[in-house]
Amino acid sequence: MTKNIFLSIPKRIEASSQADGTAKLYLAGTVGAWYDGITFKEVRQAMSEISSDTVEVHINSYGGDMFEGIAIKNYLKQLDKTVIVVIDGIAASAASVIAMAGDTIKMPKDTQIMIHNPWTWAAGNAKELRKIADDLEKSQTSIEESYLAHFKGTRDELRALLDEETSLTAEEAVMLGLADELIEETDVASKDELISDSEASVRENLIAKYGTEIMSEQSENESVQTTKGLERFAKLFR
After folding, report:
1. Angle formed at CA 74 by CA 73 and CA 78, multiple of 5 degrees
2. SS3 letters for 114-173?
3. What's the pLDDT tens digit per position in 57-105?
4. Sign, CA torsion 207/196/108/225
5. Hey, what CATH class is 12-195 in?
6. Distance between CA atoms of residues 130 and 127, nearest Å
7. Residues 141-158: pLDDT tens digits?
8. DSSP designation for 237
9. What residue ranges are annotated as transmembrane (predicted)?
């Protein structure tokens, strides 16, 4: 979950069929029952009467419970529907895991994804705390699998980003494979977050490595961005 627990987005879980035969699912707020937030049970209930073959999932969340996020992501992937994810403001922490359910992940230019290692509060003796640390490492492997389905780099490169609790702009997310398309801005404002020098260094190195490949692919897709525009962006991270 994200450590910015003082930040709050009003809860919203709403699914509806559209006139064009598709469906929309809105997920906003904190992830997990412990926070009175978005839960697997509520998402399943909201989708229970949706028969559309395509569902567009809109996400705006700072995150929350990791396993709740994984459960929701897996549920969406198993719907036997085409899942299009749109990040309306921010998809941080557990919410970024949910976003990985998308067959296509779309981000307006003013939105962000934030990824990091799982963490928890704990109390106990040395033996108990060591076990908790071991369990957290196993949890990290679980979330890595979610990201690796989209991420352009290696597991070690992904871990470097997770270690730095990395915030990615929409353009950066596309370059690294954690999103597929840049789209026009929505009316939901993104949330700026401070980026440390070490985090920026890890991110810049990976963008330099994978940005050229992504830019080449995007040059054939006008819905994303022109090659010229991406080249100007890439220069900012050299």
Report:
1. 120
2. EECCCCCCCCCCHHHHHHHHHHHHHHHHHHHHHHHCCCCCCHHHHHHHHHCCEEEEHHHH
3. 999 999 999 999 999 999 999 999 999 999 999 999 999 999 999 999 9
4. negative
5. alpha beta
6. 5
7. 889 999 999 999 999 999
8. T
9. none
> What end-to-end distance do the CA atoms of the chain give, in Å?
31
Q: In terms of C-beta distances under 8 Å and separation of at least 24 residues, what long-range contacts does 43-51 make, across chains too?
A: 43/13, 43/72, 43/75, 43/76, 44/75, 46/13, 46/14, 46/15, 47/15, 47/79, 50/15, 50/17, 50/23, 50/25, 51/17
Tell me how crowded residue 129 is: count the other CB atoms within 10 A of its CB: 12
What is the pLDDT of the chain when averaged over all its residues? Answer: 82
Domain locations along the chain: 12-195
Decide: residue 86, CB within 10 A, 0-12 exposed, 13-18 middle, 19+ buried.
buried
> Cβ(107)–Cβ(179) under 8 Å?
yes
CB–CB of 137/116 below 8 Å? no
Per DSSP bridges, beta strands 12-17 and 23-28 are: antiparallel
